[in-house]
Design goal:
The structure is a single chain. The protein is of the alpha+beta class. It folds into four domains: about 25-40 and about 300-375, conserved putative lor/sdh protein from methanococcus maripaludis s2 fold, CATH 2.40.420.20; about 50-60 and about 215-300, Efflux pump adaptor protein, beta barrel domain (Elongation Factor Tu (Ef-tu), domain 3), CATH 2.40.30.170; about 65-90 and about 185-205, RNA polymerase II/Efflux pump adaptor protein, barrel-sandwich hybrid domain (OB fold (Dihydrolipoamide Acetyltransferase, E2P), Beta Barrel); about 90-180. The chain has helices at about 1-25, 95-135, 140-180, 225-230, and strands at about 35, 40-45, 50-65, 70-75, 80, 85-90, 185, 190-195, 200-205, 210-225, 235-240, 250-255, 260-265, 270-275, 290-305, 315-325, 325-335, 340-345, 355, 375. Strand 17 (about 325-335) and strand 18 form a beta hairpin. Helix 2 (about 95-135) runs antiparallel to helix 3. The protein is rod-shaped.
Length: about 375
């Protein structure tokens, strides 16, 4: 008997007290806000993996094509240039001297060729006379053979002189190219966006010198998840926003979609997409980033809820509704969706009070609510 009393005191009684406390102790009621289904227009949009970047349609990174020390820099970063303008001049005394030497050698070679042609012409005439005299038996066959040999030798000399001219012309073209490469010019009209060198620096082939872009045609480039990219087609409307433009929205359209899915360590697998802005604002600059939304579809007079009240991203989607003093889970079917609105096709009625989830409380089926604090949300 004593043993049973001890067991009841130390084992059964504590369990009984905990049981009673759990079921009889007043539970905290949940304070919730609710929304109801509304009707209006809704858009389905997709956004890129990262912000889109404004770029110039024509952009060039100019590099040195020869060695040399910088003697002059004719333009500054940000200045506008014309095609053919001299941007940077290298010291070129040696290249200039080599060019003049090549020109002189070519002139000498041409003069020598003229002399050889003249001598060849004279010998050809002598050969013709010798052949005529031989036919008249005035000169011997040995004299004719000697003239023929002289003619052949002169023809070979003429061939050598002509080949020499080709060689000298090539040398002069090389010398001229090396000289002209000391003048680094603009390949097209544009603006110098970056200048990487200073006077006195020594360049080698491949050294970055300056960047040049043409500012009459811009586009924006962005990477989209391959699933979202499959929904995009050229011509679709785009909304572009940038913090730099004080909340202004720039319209645009999809102008190009890459046929290749590329891999990027930061952005994973993605597809590059280009946008053509409807207008270029004066304060838009190359390299500026924009938030982009591609409008996939639009529907008027749609029944919708705020997207934030819908739980579940893939597969089953549901909401919690107020049912007297508790909340119940309801599975829904959705249509078009964006960050703000999601179309509701079925699952709830217009009169249902849909609970707005709180970041501090995880909603569960059957949770009790505080009817005294129940109110319609003013956030949506």
């Amino acid at each position: 008997m004593r043993i049973l009393t001890t067991l009841f005191k130390y084992l059964v009684l504590p369990v009984l007290i905990l049981f009673l406390m759990f079921y009889l102790w007043p539970k905290k009621l949940l304070d919730v806000e609710y929304v109801k289904i509304a009707e209006g227009s809704i858009e389905e949009v997709v956004t890129p993996l990262s912000n889109s970047v404004l770029q110039a349609e024509k952009f060039a990174k100019i590099r040195a094509s020869t060695t040399g020390e910088i003697e002059k820099i004719m333009f500054k970063k940000g200045e506008r240039v014309k095609k053919g303008d001299l941007i940077i001049k290298l010291k070129n005394d040696e290249q200039f001297a080599r060019l003049k030497l090549a020109e002189a050698n070519l002139k000498a070679g041409i003069a020598q060729l003229k002399q050889t042609k003249l001598r060849s012409s004279n010998i050809q005439k002598s050969l013709e006379r010798a052949e005529k005299l031989f036919s008249e038996k005035i000169v011997s066959e040995s004299n004719l053979d000697q003239t023929k040999t002289e003619s052949q030798v002169m023809q070979e000399a003429l061939n050598i002189s002509e080949a020499n001219i080709l060689q000298l012309e090539s040398q002069m073209r090389i010398a001229k190219s090396l000289y002209e490469n000391t003048f680094i010019r603009a390949p097209f009209d544009g603006i110098i966006s970056d200048l990487y060198v200073e006077i006195g620096e020594y360049l080698v082939p491949g050294t970055p010198v300056y960047d040049l872009f043409k500012d009459d045609n811009y586009y924006l480039s962005a990477r989209f998840d391959e699933v979202d990219a499959a929904k995009i087609s050229t011509g679709m409307k785009v909304r572009l926003k940038s913090d730099t433009l004080s909340g202004r929205i720039i319209g645009g359209k999809v102008s190009w979609i890459s046929p290749v899915v590329s891999y990027d360590i930061k952005s994973s697998r993605g597809v590059e997409v280009h946008f053509e802005p409807a207008s270029i604002e004066p304060d838009m600059r190359i390299g500026m980033t924009f938030e982009a939304e591609v409008i996939i579809n639009t529907k008027q007079s749609a029944r919708y809820l705020p997207s934030s009240v819908i739980i579940g991203k893939y597969g089953e989607k549901y909401v919690f509704i107020v049912n007297k003093d508790i909340i119940n889970k309801k599975v829904i079917t959705t249509g078009l969706s964006n960050w703000e609105r999601t179309e509701i096709l079925s699952g709830i009625d217009d009169s249902d009070m849909v609970v707005v989830p709180s970041s501090s409380e995880e909603l569960k089926e059957g949770m009790k609510i505080n009817r005294k604090t129940l109110k319609k949300s003013e956030r949506f």
